[in-house]
Design brief:
Blueprint (H helix, E strand, L loop, with lengths): L9 H11 L2 H8 L3 H15 L4 E4 L2 E4 L1 H22 L12 E6 L1 H6 L1 H11 L4 E6 L2 H9 L5 E4 L9 E8 L1 E6 L11 H6 L2 E3 L6 H11 L7 E3 L6 H7 L3 E5 H10 L2 E4 L8 E7 L7 H14 L6 E2 L6
Parallel strand pairs: 3-4, 3-5, 8-9, 8-10
Antiparallel strand pairs: 1-2, 5-12, 6-12, 6-13, 7-10, 7-11
Helix pairs in contact: 1-2, 1-4, 2-3, 6-12
Length: 312
């Protein structure tokens, strides 16, 4: 039998007749006329090839076939009512789910401990999984449900993703405490002349620095490029290098090592850290709870929105 040919509206009729053993009571519960219920029962008999109910002096008596169907039919109706028609809810005190959050390596180092602390304090049974993804991997991962939320500065993500601003990130120069510039004011000339470790991340900050120096007729000639900000501390300790890093990361490095941050001699626009999610999960109760929590923890705009009207 092809399920597409089955009128699923007949299932509540069968369920009501099985529970009440009375056409009158079943019709009243279903808000149907006696004749409409009789017609539905006739269709059920034709569909299932069985009499289903036999009229006796004590009402309708189910056949063996009807009795076999009582439990699965009731279960189907309950599942539809509770899992399809019921409004989605999320109770953090009892929820046992896993949230998967994507960060850059900087986000993982700076933000992840705060994310874990915030979630664990409110939802003790919720599990967390961290993914460090490249920018090009984030949109497919969100669309396929491999991650629930991505937090970071990702200017090239597609406009169809929903996003919410969390905070701005400013950049500073970081050097070891014994560096010659540790107690000096940075100028464009001494900044350009200083050996540097450079991480060319998605935000494009290093390209902006190169452009600003070029406009002043300067260039950095001694740079060592690294694939990750997390490789910077040992490089600063090993030589007279300078690194341009996000201010929050400089603070974190300084807590665990002998580093000082200096104000940059050029104006760099702050990058904006946002959380991003796919529209498929915009109304999911658990996802909404997680986004609200991140907004409270990191200080966000009150109303999430797609980046443009095309994302609505």
């Amino acid at each position: 039998m092809d399920i597409r040919s089955v009128d699923l509206n007949l299932l509540p009729v069968l369920d009501a007749l099985l529970r009440h053993r009375s056409a009158t009571v079943a019709a009243r519960e279903l808000d149907m006329s006696q004749s409409a219920l009789s017609t539905a029962l006739g269709r059920l008999r034709a569909l299932l090839g069985d009499e289903l109910f036999v009229r006796t002096g004590r009402g309708l008596r189910p056949t063996a076939r009807a009795s076999e169907l009582a439990e699965p039919v009731a279960e189907i109706i309950e599942r539809v009512r509770d899992r399809v028609l019921q409004s989605s809810t999320f109770d953090p005190q009892v929820a046992k789910v896993e949230f998967r959050i994507a960060h850059s390596d900087v986000g993982a180092y700076v933000l992840w401990p705060r994310v874990v602390r915030a979630v664990r304090s409110r939802a003790p049974s919720v599990r967390l999984a961290l993914s460090t993804l490249q920018q090009a991997e984030i949109a497919p991962a969100l669309a396929e449900g491999q991650v629930d939320l991505a937090i970071g500065s990702y200017p090239a993500l597609p406009e169809s993703l929903f996003q919410q601003r969390l905070f701005e990130r400013v950049y500073v120069a970081l050097v070891a405490t014994g560096h010659p510039l540790a107690r000096k004011t940075l100028t464009l000339s001494n900044f350009a002349a200083t050996p540097q470790v450079v991480v060319r991340a998605a935000a494009g900050v290093q390209d902006r620095i190169d452009d600003a120096l070029a406009r002043a007729g300067l260039a950095r000639s001694d740079c060592v490029e690294l694939p990750s900000y997390l490789m910077i501390p040992p490089m600063l300790e090993a030589g007279d290098f300078l690194a341009v890093v996000p201010g929050q990361l400089a603070d974190a490095f300084s807590r665990y090592g002998n580093f000082v941050s200096r104000k940059l001699p050029l104006d760099l626009p702050a990058t904006v850290v946002r959380m991003h999610w796919h529209r498929r999960f915009n109304e999911d109760a658990g996802s909404r709870w997680l986004r609200t929590l991140m907004a409270e923890e990191f200080g966000s705009e009150p109303t999430p929105r797609p980046r443009t009207s095309r994302g609505t």
